[in-house]
Design a protein that fits this description.
This protein has 462 residues and is an alpha/beta fold. It has 3 domains: 37-147 and 160-254, 2-enoyl-CoA Hydratase, Chain A, domain 1 (Alpha-Beta Complex); 262-390, no CATH class; 397-452, OB fold (Dihydrolipoamide Acetyltransferase, E2P). Helix content is 47%, strand content 18%. It has 14 helices and 16 strands. The strands form 4 sheets. A 6-stranded parallel β-sheet has the order 8-5-3-2-1-11, sandwiched between helices. A hairpin with a 2-residue loop joins strand 12 and strand 13 (414-419).
């Protein structure tokens, strides 16, 4: 019995040992590698301060998520030079490789978009898209090719306008050339895009080594980018974007707010609402709401304008025009200040934004509408305020002049009288007696000068 039990125990131990040996002999199945992540940002419209905030936040999110690639899908007519350079600085300083993709079909990367494309680690375009026309423009500056001095010139050299044009073009050309050399792209065509405002289709850009490849969509972009080597600030990186998880970065409330208040037209409207609200509050104290709304609008307008390339001469002319319109409402200038105010306001609004970048101008129809509305509003509000100042007072001690009452106590030329239900200290002729009806003739400090109701003094008072 014991031998059978011992034999059974040994058999069980042997089975356990054999199973353990087999488990150690069979290699463990390796876990599937975790797919990488790609961050996608969509940049549409004119490039401005809101675009900078959006791209910066997206690149920080890509770094935080340890993404394999950050994709900027772009469709822009251009934008502000300062905003463009801020975005390029963020791209160059990003530890995560950045791909700029001109998409969808029919999109463009004109002006500032061309610089961003050149600065990116990977440049791609959709089949029916274009890029180029990267000449910098500003108010009062023509946009043709750089001027060349004529040999037969008299020696005075180029005009100041031509000199500024040449400086802008030289700076922009050097900038795009340095980006092209950094990313090993066609520097010659980049300079041509700046100096001659030329453009390229997607196929031509691929043939001229301006972009890396043409992609149908983001999925095709990731497929073609897989395995490529790029250089970031951390060194060379081999992209592994196949079957990557796509993370879309949406614009948050701050970006949306910036995009709204940095619209030049809206900033000008907010500026006018702020001025009107404060003017109405100061003219009619006590309403509170116009003052609060005006102060908030004015602060938002100034915040938006300080982020834009503002011409301060234009801003000064706007305030000067408003001041002339206000003065016209209170001074009898027969329209001289009013006309001058409208002219100053219109000129200032035209000069307000010191840039001709697409999407950053103030429409002329809006300027005319605001000028007419400003004149009407200020003249109406100023007229109401002027009439209220000329209207006789309805409250106060001075309103008692001419009122009648009854003398209650009186001795030695002074006493008390009941006038309009209140008791007042009065002075008058010593001939007056209590119980007489009296009339107020003037106010002397806190006392009232009175006579009898018929206005006749007694012989002694006379």
């Amino acid at each position: 019995m014991r031998s059978a039990r011992a034999w059974l125990t040994g058999l069980v131990l042997f089975a356990f040992a054999a199973g353990a040996a087999n488990a150690q002999a069979v290699p463990a199945t390796p876990a599937a590698p975790k797919p990488g992540m790609v961050v996608l940002m969509e940049l549409e419209g004119a490039i401005g301060p809101a675009s900078v905030d959006y791209i910066r936040r997206g690149l920080k999110q890509a770094d935080k998520e340890n993404a394999r690639l950050a994709v900027i899908q772009i469709d822009t007519p251009g934008g502000l030079d300062a905003s463009m350079r801020s975005i390029i600085k963020d791209i160059l300083a990003s530890p995560v490789p950045v791909a700029t993709f001109v998409a969808p079909n029919g999109a463009r990367a004109a002006s500032a978009g061309t610089y961003i494309l050149y600065a990116s680690h990977i440049a791609a375009m959709a089949p029916a898209s274009n890029l180029g026309a990267a000449t910098p423009v500003a108010i009062g500056m023509p946009s043709p090719a750089a001027p060349t001095p004529k040999p037969e010139s008299s020696g005075k050299g180029e005009s100041e306008g031509d000199t500024m044009t040449a400086k802008r073009l030289a700076d922009a050309s050097a900038y795009i050339r340095s980006l092209a050399q950094l990313r090993e792209r066609n520097a010659e065509w980049g300079e041509k895009a700046v100096r001659e405002s030329v453009s390229l289709s997607a196929q031509e850009a691929k043939e001229k080594n301006v972009i890396d490849f043409i992609a149908r969509d983001v999925a095709d972009l990731l497929q073609q980018a897989n395995g490529r080597e790029v250089r970031t600030i951390n060194g060379k990186v081999k992209l592994a974007t196949q079957r990557a998880e796509l993370l879309m970065v949406d614009a948050d409330w701050r970006t949306r707010l910036l995009s709204v208040i940095t619209e030049p037209s809206l900033a000008l409207i907010l500026l006018m609402i702020g001025v009107y609200g404060l003017l109405f509050e100061f003219s009619n104290p006590g309403f509170v709401l116009p003052g609060v709304a005006g102060a908030i609008s004015l602060m938002l307008a100034l915040f938006g304008l300080q982020m834009l390339p503002v011409n301060y001469a234009g801003l000064g002319l706007i305030f000067l025009g408003v001041a002339f319109l206000i003065a016209e409402a209170f001074l009898p200038t027969f329209g001289v200040l009013g006309v001058g105010g409208i002219v100053a306001f219109c000129i200032g609004a035209v000069l307000l934004i010191d840039n001709e970048a697409p999407g950053f101008g103030v429409p002329l129809w809006l300027i005319g509408l605001l000028a007419v509305g400003s004149a009407a509003f200020i003249l109406v509000v100023g007229g109401i305020a002027a009439k209220s100042r000329r209207r006789p007072l309805a409250v106060g001690v001075s309103t008692l002049v001419g009122a009648t009452g009854e003398l209650v106590e009186f001795a030695d030329g002074e006493g008390w009288a009941q006038i309009q239900g209140d008791y007042w200290k009065v002075r008058g002729s010593e001939a007056l007696r209590p119980g007489r009806r009296i009339r107020v003739t003037q106010v002397q400090g806190l006392a009232l000068q009175v006579t009898d109701e018929e206005g006749q003094q007694s012989p002694a008072g006379a």
